[in-house]
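Side project, low priority. Logging it here so it doesn't get lost.
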Amino acid sequence: MEIERKCLNCGEPVRGRSDKKFCSDYCRNYYNNQWRTYSDNYIKKVNNILKKNRKILTDLNPSGKTTVHKNQLLKLGFRFDFCTNIYTTKNGNVYHFCYEQGYLAIENDIFALVKKDLKQN
């Protein structure tokens, strides 16, 4: 007894090879384009947040090293839940980076802003 397979896009019966997932080329293309659009939109949103975080850090830290209050970052729209990498020093300090621009929580909502020297890598 063969189990009837349904098209992943429209739910119609699928006929043909046992690994076939769609009833037609139209359904296959539509399904894949919808999935890709969702995936691409998510990636674009995350990249835009990361770019905005980087710009905020760059604008506040033109010299490569400074301190700012957390409220200043938040007021500009900084998102602390997005970063590209985290670096922990030997003495336990945890730096969060948005590309080459980083920050370290010091105390009393004060953050040290730093710029990674890209020549070292």
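Brief comment: The chain has a mean pLDDT of 92.
Revisit when time allows.
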